[in-house]
Task: inverse folding
């Protein structure tokens, strides 16, 4: 399948119809094979937090348990980042890259019995482009000018400017479709077309899903019922898996996952991890000094940060990309590895006095044990280069306000959207190119803003695109207002040995439609 | 009215100590507290470093190199338990002194003057008592921020009402006694009567409260740390170790268990000594009913 798509991209990079059809055929042909391997039953899933609401446009991690089970997206990505049809059977990007035309799948029914059509998709675009209702989808819609319903099964999205192909598919993959009849009440009542329907919810305790009998994917879902139990403690969920009380743990801690993995339990980490970033407020204290900031590229003991914070589950990185990102370049992690001598040299070049170098605090998310541990590791590392700092422990709204109002010198915080089009990194607060809540306007690193703009405006798939990505990577290292250390997975899946058939989601959401029990 | 002679006071104190130590449980408790106090304040001389990280020895069990094992950053749990004692004991001592320094004068003034002063001060005490101690401490830390001094103040203020009530009760029982009336008849000022006549004769219950409240203060400091609002890391604290250690209970059971044991034994020791002291002091009062000023 990879070969098919690569060839298509090389020949007609803007017209994906052929590749999509091929992908669809392969995707559908995989189902009978899966059916031979797994069988249905009642799947018991342990999670560590209840959902926030049923709105699939709100990508809070707690909602990731349900979004892809109650709803479908317009398209999906394979774990290695290839676009695949879903509710959109095909999509065609205009030659000028200023629009994309979607052909919707026929015969798709919402749980209410309503039919998926172009008007339904248009209603979702309307919600997504409303700053009050669009939630996490709203920033992604910023590239969209308007949309046109061509016919009941065709809709065209028009863009403000020419848009790179990957950015278009990101938008389509991000867009989960809500039944227009349920948009108003979607926070309280799910209104999707997904493989499962909501049967019961006991707030704070459990959610029960039953198979959607009219689901459009043949032979799916495999399991006819899913019971999601909310555990307050990771250890309790772990004990439940070990004692056979649950079949799957979703979103447990890396340490428990690591221990269970060692005990022989299958552990799945998806293609959409987060990246831990040492966020630097370059408008404050010694961090105004570029050389001082650059030294932190070498002051991060990434291997030990990964080990201590995340039980080694993840990868060390020096750039804010997941391995599936087109801008991922593992060479940087080697070049900018932990090196106290290089750090000392940059600190010397900064010209700052010892008192100036010590004049800042490391804010710590006190409610997140990995952050507490890795912050103490960094604090101790800094002592080795004669920088003595205090930890400023914060949590809850106090922490969020500090983060979003830029009232910190430095802190560790995870960022998402790092597996998709590189400029999507700018949806994270510290990486925003405009209205940056930490660095403020005008952006203190215009070279970074230019690098993002270059990525956004370099169309195609040739060497010029690679050059734009390389330029962005170099700029990120030099600007050094965010020092990535490692990837980590918030949505780790640990399963009983009897469970198989997981579909890995690009955003590491839980997808259960193909999951069942080994025959 | 003549002040108590130092030698008489010393002899009286020595008698109390002897009678407390005559109780086996109290003697063991005193020995434990002495040992842990000496260790806590001399640990640096023993070469123990609670901050030293050994990345090759994370979450290891007890060994010759690390008798209590290591934590998630490869730090020596024994060193952290011992230095954690320093945190707990200094915070508790400071908090109890602060509580007594505020609460005792409050109680003295309220009991001595009565009237609107008594009503006003006791309503303040009622207000403080109406709030659970932990809630009051959490609110104070939210205002003061996380630090040892903030924890000390927060824990200390929660103890103020107890001292105020004990001191007031003592004043009310002594206020109309002959020796107080006599001192006033000789023209003593209010402050002289309160602080030089009544207070010296009120020490027994106050002292007992100080010991008992020490255990409460240690527990409250640990509770604040366990809730994540205590002294910030990397300063070792038993409550913080319990909080973090429970995350690694499977990998390193000693991490949470040993600070818990140290905390329990310390609280138990203070409590045992407090009970012993109370019984001894009450016994002395029965045996020698005359107030010290009159005896002198």
Result:
């Amino acid at each position: 399948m990879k070969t098919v798509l690569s060839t298509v991209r090389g020949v007609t990079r803007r017209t994906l119809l052929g590749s999509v059809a091929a992908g669809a055929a392969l995707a559908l042909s995989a189902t009978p094979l899966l059916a031979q391997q797994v069988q249905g039953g009642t799947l018991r899933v342990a999670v560590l937090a209840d959902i926030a609401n049923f709105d699939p446009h709100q990508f809070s991690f707690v909602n990731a348990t349900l979004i892809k089970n109650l709803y479908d997206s317009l398209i999906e990505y394979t774990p290695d980042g290839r676009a695949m049809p879903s509710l959109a059977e095909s999509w065609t990007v205009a030659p000028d890259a200023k629009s994309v035309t979607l052909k919707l799948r026929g015969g798709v029914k919402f749980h209410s019995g309503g039919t998926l059509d172009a008007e339904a998709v248009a209603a979702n675009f309307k919600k997504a482009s409303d700053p009050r209702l669009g939630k996490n989808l709203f920033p992604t819609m910023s590239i969209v000018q308007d949309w046109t319903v061509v016919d009941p099964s065709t809709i065209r999205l028009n863009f403000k400017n020419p848009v790179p192909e990957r950015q278009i598919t990101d938008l389509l993959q991000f867009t989960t479709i809500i039944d227009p009849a349920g948009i108003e009440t979607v926070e309280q009542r799910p209104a999707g077309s997904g493989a499962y329907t909501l049967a019961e919810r006991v707030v704070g305790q459990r959610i029960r899903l039953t198979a959607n009998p009219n689901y459009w994917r043949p032979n799916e879902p495999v399991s006819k019922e899913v019971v999601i139990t909310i555990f307050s403690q990771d250890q309790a969920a772990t004990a439940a898996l070990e004692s056979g009380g649950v079949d799957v743990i979703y979103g447990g801690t890396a340490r428990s996952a690591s221990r269970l993995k060692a005990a022989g339990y299958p552990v799945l980490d998806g293609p959409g991890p987060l990246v831990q970033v040492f966020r630097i407020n370059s408008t404050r204290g010694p961090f105004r000094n570029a050389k001082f900031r650059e030294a932190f590229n070498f002051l991060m003991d990434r291997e030990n940060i990964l080990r201590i914070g995340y039980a080694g589950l993840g990868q060390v990185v020096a750039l804010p990309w997941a391995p599936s990102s087109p801008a991922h370049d593992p060479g940087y992690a080697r070049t900018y590895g932990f090196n106290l001598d290089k750090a000392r040299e940059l600190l010397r070049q900064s010209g700052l006095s010892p008192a100036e170098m010590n004049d800042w605090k490391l804010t710590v998310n006190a409610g997140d044990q990995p952050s507490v541990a890795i912050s103490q590791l960094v604090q101790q590392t800094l002592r080795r280069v004669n920088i003595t700092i205090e930890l400023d422990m914060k949590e809850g709204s106090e922490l969020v306000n500090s983060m979003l109002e830029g009232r910190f010198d430095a802190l560790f915080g995870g960022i998402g959207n790092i597996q998709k089009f590189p400029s999507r990194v700018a949806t994270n607060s510290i990486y925003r190119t405009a209205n940056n809540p930490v660095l403020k306007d005008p952006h203190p690193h215009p070279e970074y803003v230019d690098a993002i703009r270059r990525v956004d405006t370099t169309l195609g798939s040739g060497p010029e695109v690679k050059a734009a990505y390389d330029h962005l990577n170099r700029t990120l290292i030099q600007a050094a207002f965010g020092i990535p250390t490692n990837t980590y997975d918030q949505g780790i899946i640990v399963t009983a040995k009897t469970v198989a058939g997981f579909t890995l989601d690009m955003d590491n959401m839980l997808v259960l439609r193909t999951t069942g029990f080994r025959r | 009215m003549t002040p108590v002679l130092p030698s008489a006071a010393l002899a009286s104190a020595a008698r109390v100590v002897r009678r407390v130590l005559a109780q086996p449980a109290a003697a063991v408790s005193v020995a434990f507290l002495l040992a842990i106090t000496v260790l806590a304040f001399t640990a640096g001389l023993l070469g123990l470093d609670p901050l030293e990280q050994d990345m090759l020895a994370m979450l290891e069990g007890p060994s010759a190199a690390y008798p209590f094992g290591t934590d998630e950053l490869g730090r020596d749990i024994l060193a952290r338990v011992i230095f954690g004692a320093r945190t707990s004991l200094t915070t508790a001592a400071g908090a109890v002194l602060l509580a007594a320094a505020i609460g005792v004068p409050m109680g003295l003034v309220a009991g001595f003057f009565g009237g609107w002063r008594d009503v006003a001060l006791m309503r303040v005490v009622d207000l403080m008592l109406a709030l659970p101690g932990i809630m009051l401490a959490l609110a104070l830390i939210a205002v003061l921020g996380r630090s040892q001094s903030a924890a000390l103040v927060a824990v200390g203020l929660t103890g103020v009402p107890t001292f105020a009530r004990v001191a007031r009760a003592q004043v009310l029982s002594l206020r109309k006694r002959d020796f107080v009336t006599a001192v006033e008849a000789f023209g003593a000022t209010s402050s002289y009567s309160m602080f030089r006549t009544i207070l010296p004769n009120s020490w027994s219950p106050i002292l007992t409260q100080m010991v008992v409240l020490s255990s409460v203060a240690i527990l409250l400091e640990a509770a604040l740390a366990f809730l994540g609002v205590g002294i910030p890391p990397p300063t070792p604290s038993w409550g913080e170790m319990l909080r973090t250690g429970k995350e690694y209970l499977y990998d390193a059971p000693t991490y949470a268990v040993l600070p818990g044991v140290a905390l329990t034994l310390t609280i138990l020791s203070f409590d045992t000594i407090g009970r012993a002291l109370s019984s001894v002091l009450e016994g002395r009062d029965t045996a020698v009913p005359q107030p010290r000023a009159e005896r002198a």
